[in-house]
Specification:
globular; single chain; 21 helices; transcription regulation; Stress_Response_Reg; XnlR_reg_dom; mainly alpha
């Protein structure tokens, strides 16, 4: 140390001491350095709330505009690409994983799944960081399947077998072409006449058919190990295909599709996905995605069967993806086979179902695949989110307009309601998020044209949900709803979630809560009879109901006070999720679709009725800018910051 009164400046020798540290410490530093580099290399457009919060004058900035990097000049963040800001604002930067069993990998929760949507709704209602996703536990386990496995299981009597096959023809092949009907009946009769039950391929196919026949017709099962009818036939069929054939026949593909469909009745969605994936790959190996020359397959029925079998795979792939959120397994650009057509002569009706119905189903499946790809994926697109929503709804409108009259007016025909709900429910949920925000936006920040646009999309979602609910309710009251049906339970669950949001956000729709309660009771009834999917969905709705009860309790037992507060701010809050450059929709009045105005027998294109929807669909695509989550920073200032990422 220099002396206090020393006038001379002191100079010291530079020291570079060697310090011993553990190698693990250096590795941790290197890993931390790489992690920070990776974070900086990510687009700042959709920042992860936990890791990328910054504060500017006390305001939390969770989502930065592409041109707003100057909010924090000290942050050396690279400029994002032009197309990184147009993803679905409901998606987080990272995939959603849920730890469940320490011995197994974490569960991947797909963004399009209705159960994921239910979890997000509960988080909005509770505004709690501790609100967690409910893992799917209500499914038939492998251990249970092995318990009911019976290597000596026998074929049913011929009259019973005929009945089971006819049930499948009535309930399944009327909608999906999975087998040739007359050929299947002929094979069944021939097997019983000759007593030939030793062919494993044929046995596997018919056991899959018997399983579906039982589950569509039975109300209960005597088995104590598995309450789902037909499970014994399913297990026996599954055990016959442990090794897929190197040279598959069409019967192999038929069987895989039948088994994949039955897997949903066991609520084994992953098994269904694997089976239809195997069917698709076997189909590719035999060229089902191509037209086969007549010289290679002279029989017109067989050629048409190949075509329709491929499109059944296609429809299953898109349909399964829409239920859980899996990406499509094959692009439309890789499909060259023609659409189904009518076989000349009188043999068509003996073998195949209605051609126009199948073509309509394929068209709807194609749009459904686009919804999964364009709304729920993390891909980068040149169009904004609202532009993609607009294009999807235009496609649905064109699909509805092209339906033949006999299908358009048929309540049992293919309807796009689930597709509409899947595409537009992020808008409706975002509406609820902003309506329940503790910092509602000022009147001046709202724009009538934007409010009308978002209200139009929300109304389409609500209208589709009401239509779906009414169809299922009619089936239930008529006693014609399959008690173990997976898809009925799924559609009812999906519509019930929409009804909850509708009743909370819009004052004129408060009666929609009665529809939610009706769905709750139907799922309770299906669950009590052993429907595993209904049990899962009922448990989710019960948690939603508990959240609603907690909201009422927080208001001193006056449920309408919270609803009134939400309704009063919802109209203005719609505007803040889109910027000023949104295409003008004129001076149309913001108005909902009161449930009393819904027709008793709605047609398949009912969701597109209304001037506001027509105006929205008619807007030039270039007039739309992105659906901008950065304008909703106030919404995310409450504690639940990991809503979209955890």
């Amino acid at each position: 140390m220099p002396e206090a009164d020393c006038p001379t400046e002191c100079h010291y020798v530079s020291r570079d001491r060697q310090v011993k540290v553990h190698e693990s410490y250096l590795e941790e530093l290197a890993a931390e350095n790489q992690r920070l580099r990776d974070q900086l290399s990510q687009s700042p457009r959709f920042l992860t709330p936990r890791e990328h919060q910054v504060h500017d004058e006390g305001v939390e900035v969770l989502f930065a505009l592409p041109g707003d990097c100057n909010l924090r000049p000290s942050l050396d963040v690279p400029e994002p690409d032009a197309d990184t800001h147009v993803r679905n604002p409901m998606l987080g930067e990272r995939a959603w994983f849920l730890p469940y069993d320490p011995s197994l990998p974490p569960i991947h929760v797909c963004e399009a799944a209705c159960t994921a949507f239910a979890t997000r709704l509960r988080k909005v209602l509770t505004k709690s960081e501790t609100t967690s996703h409910m893992p799917r536990t209500q499914y038939t386990t492998e251990a249970t399947l092995m318990k009911i496995r019976d290597p000596a299981i026998e074929w049913p009597s011929l009259p019973q077998a005929r009945l089971l096959i006819q049930i499948v023809f009535s309930q399944v092949t009327r909608v999906y072409h999975l087998v040739l009907r007359k050929s299947t009946i002929d094979q069944l009769e021939d097997a019983y006449r000759k007593g030939n039950f030793d062919d494993p391929v044929m046995t596997c196919k018919f056991f899959a058919l018997f399983a579906l026949g039982e589950v569509y017709s039975a109300r209960s099962t005597p088995s104590l190990d598995c309450n789902v009818p037909g499970a014994a036939y399913y297990v026996s069929a599954i055990t016959m295909i442990p090794i897929l054939p190197e040279r598959p026949s069409l019967a192999h593909i038929e069987t895989l599709l039948l088994l994949s469909l039955y897997s949903f009745f066991l609520n084994r969605r992953h098994s269904a996905f694997l089976l239809v994936g195997s069917a698709m790959r076997l189909g590719l190996t035999v060229g089902l995605n191509h037209n086969i020359p007549e010289s290679k397959c002279p029989d017109p029925v067989e050629r048409e069967h190949r075509t329709r079998l491929w499109w059944a795979i296609y429809v299953f792939d898109r349909m399964y993806g829409s239920k859980v959120g899996w990406p499509i397994q094959i692009s439309d650009a890789d499909i060259y086979v023609e659409m189904p057509s009518k076989v000349p002569g009188d043999i068509h009706d003996d073998h195949t179902s209605d051609t126009e119905y199948l073509v309509a189903s394929i068209g709807l499946a194609k749009i459904t695949g686009q919804v999964i790809d364009h709304v729920y994926s993390r891909k980068k697109f040149p169009e904004s989110f609202l532009q993609r929503e607009q294009k999807l709804l235009i496609s649905l409108k064109e699909w509805c307009g092209a339906l033949p009259p006999q299908i358009r007016l048929n309540r049992d025909g293919p309807v796009p309601k689930n597709c509409i709900m899947l595409a537009s429910r992020p808008i409706l949920l975002h509406t609820l998020i902003q309506a329940t925000s503790p910092n509602p936006f000022e009147e001046g920040s709202s724009q009538p044209n934007i409010r009308q646009t978002l209200r139009t999309l929300s109304d389409a979602c609500i209208h589709a949900a009401r239509h779906t609910h009414s169809l299922i309710l009619e089936e239930w009251t008529n006693g014609s709803l399959p008690i173990f049906g997976y898809f009925y339970a799924h559609y009812l669950f999906s519509s019930a979630l929409i009804m909850v949001i509708s009743s909370l956000v819009y004052p004129e729709n408060t009666n929609d809560f009665a529809l939610f309660e009706a769905a709750f009771e139907i799922l309770r009834g299906m669950s009590s009879h052993g429907n595993l999917a209904a049990t899962e969905f009922y448990d989710n709705l019960e948690c939603v109901k508990q959240c609603l009860d907690s909201m009422k309790g927080a208001d001193g037992g006056h449920p309408q006070s919270d609803i009134s507060r939400i309704s009063g701010s919802s109209h203005d809050s719609l505007a803040v999720i889109a910027p000023n450059q949104l295409g003008l929709l004129g001076n149309t009045t913001v108005s909902g679709i009161p449930e009393a105005t819904a027709p008793a027998n709605p047609s398949n294109d009912m969701a597109f009725l209304g001037e506001s929807m027509e105006e929205f669909l008619a807007q030039p695509g270039l007039d739309f800018d992105l659906l901008d989550p950065s304008l909703t920073d106030g919404v995310y200032s409450w504690p639940n910051l990991s809503l979209w990422t955890t």
